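This part of the workshop introduces the protein records we will be handling. An example says more than a description, so a record of this kind follows:
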Amino acid sequence: MDDSRNIVIIGGGVTGISCLYFLVNHPKFNRERDTITLFESSGIASAASGKASGFLSLEWHGPSTSSLASLSYNLHKQLADEYNGQQKWGYRSLDTWSIKADEKCTYPDKLSPDIEWIEPSIVEKVTRLGNKKNSAQVHPYKFCHAIFEEASKIANVNLVKGHVISVDENEVEYRLIGDDYAPDEDEEITSVEELHTIHSMEASHVIVAAGPWTPHLIPNLRICGARIHSITVDLPMRLNGNAVFSEIVYADGTIGAPEFYAREDELYVCGEFDDEPLPELSSETRIDQRRCQAIKECADHFHPVIRDSNVKVRQACYLPISNATGAPVIGKIGSSIYVAAAHGCWGITLGPGTGKVLSEMVLDGKVSSANIDLLDPEGSFV
């Protein structure tokens, strides 16, 4: 009897990559016999997981996710310690602040000298929200790629650039994308249509971690995508570890509220959500240059050094959000299908923890590392 497993993961973001890593490191995973197939239509960390701020918080979580957040935050530190994450993916602790600014401020509050990129004279009120014991950051794109690389060193990982179109018990159907199309030896390509052949693959377990695209594979699951834009600014100095949630009153009385995340070599700034519909693939995400410019113009008001610096990256992504519970959806559906999605703005924080509990769910049949009872998919269907 062949007891080998082919575990299929759909989605190459932080959740899927974390599932991959903790599965291949699980003591019940047979590295000689078992395989994992990772389907990703656009590339590792090509969607929100590669474009997020990378902010990590230990404490800003409600009852449904507090246990998972504690597990995941600590796993981030362990991974950074084990694989030199400080150098490889910019892991470091942060101070976190709420700052209210006013260009007509008359009595400035005291601003930390570590925040060199905010003009002290406009700072009306400073409130500490977190410190280096409970706040941290990673560069999420670099994190995902590094963890994928580590997992690939120790197990047979089959990365398929394909668009999964359906999921059933122990089977997925998909189309290959671009150069990864490879016909069978006895198959002669006679038309462009053959490049859209539907393939199938048997699977012992299927983990759907496709972010806002998850309902395309699990119908009636109440998860949507909310588009958000961000930029990175190339400042002329090394930046200390600070995250700032701001509100600023401009000289004309209008208000802005950018979020700032200082990476060592750049300043990440994001704006507000909009209602642009979710595209078929993450690679088709449209970037509204006007929104990116508005973020830069808003940030320019905080200090001349920002105004005089160039934008390195303009980008947009869709955050996966549960419009049923507002919390992640993590659990088993049917006999061999699992879902892990709708982490919202906490996807990077909760990624490793989600991967850990999914590895337990698949290979142990139960979760022992965290309490995720309130994240069961049952309450998230229409």
